[in-house]
Model the fold of this input.
Amino acid sequence: MNNSSTTMIRRKGRWAGVMLLLSVCLLMLAAWTTAGYTSAASTSNSAAKEDCTVNQTARKHYVNVAVATLWTEPGLARQLDAPSLSNPVNMEKWTANMATADQRRWLTGKTETQALYGQEVRLLKVRGDWAYVAVIGQSTPRSKYGYPGWLPRKQILTTTTGAAYSKCPVAIVSAKTAKLYDTDRKSSLLTLSFNTRLPVVATEASWLQVHTPDNGTAWLRKQDVDVYDQLSDIPAPTGAELVQTGKQFLGLPYLWAGISAYGFDCSGFTSTLYSFHGIALPRDASAQIKEGTPVSWNDMQPGDLMFFAHDNGKGSVHHVSMYIGDGKMMHSPKAGKTVEIISVDTPAYKKEFAGARHYLN
Done:
């Protein structure tokens, strides 16, 4: 049986559990008003109270654009970066604006990371129209809260009702990109990136209704997502499945700080592939090498990560790739290049090899 068939069987097998939880979440739709959803605590159904409890005093902050780019400081952006600073963002236009390797290389050291639509961030401070946040779920030694950086305040939204949906099924975008549709299911609201995650509140034929950061609802096509009752239900991947997931991005131009289908940096690529399969790795290569189990050059298996360091592999780690078998590795190398597969014996990389890590059971 091939990987695509295995994935199809897994998806079909999960729908029974998903439908059960959806019956709970559907109760919340009846409480919808022009001001948004009412608290799950106000429903008379005891199961809904237990499964979708909301703390009305818990103010949380969520990314409210398809892809938010975090900067090292406010005010660094160039005119060509404007499409990435708006709400909504236009990632296609922004990446197209950077027509040369130098224009992409300019971002090095100026941008930090990215966060996807609906992702929770911790608000650390505000400076004018900018907010300093930590991306929850992107671990780093730099902050106990998550990966830090600055983004326009208009790209995040504060709400007290997001927690009401924390126990609903979760849709994870499995396609490279997926259209998020308005209530008529004809008008596209946003184009979401691979690995975007949203709570599911209803299902209908080939559609899923999801809760959005602004406390509204929108629709996704089932074919574009994987659905789980809870994130812990994501099946442990094989190395071959990790490799297959990564191969869909071959040819995608490198983007410093990128973690989306519009461009990855080296560690954004590896951490996103593992994240999609339910395994949390640190955001940066220098931290990823400290996790997992060391593997020798001759014992590497598909899905293992390979690390590269300055001073012929003895200095600081500056790059990471994924071993895919048959003496080859896949990576997002640098500005001006694309996600590619090359030999592990490529001299420029082999001389800087600093070790490999295995993260699968």
Notes: The radius of gyration is 21 Å. The domain at 60-159 is CATH 2.30.30.40 (SH3 type barrels.). The chain is about 20% helix and 30% strand. The longest strand covers residues 317-325.
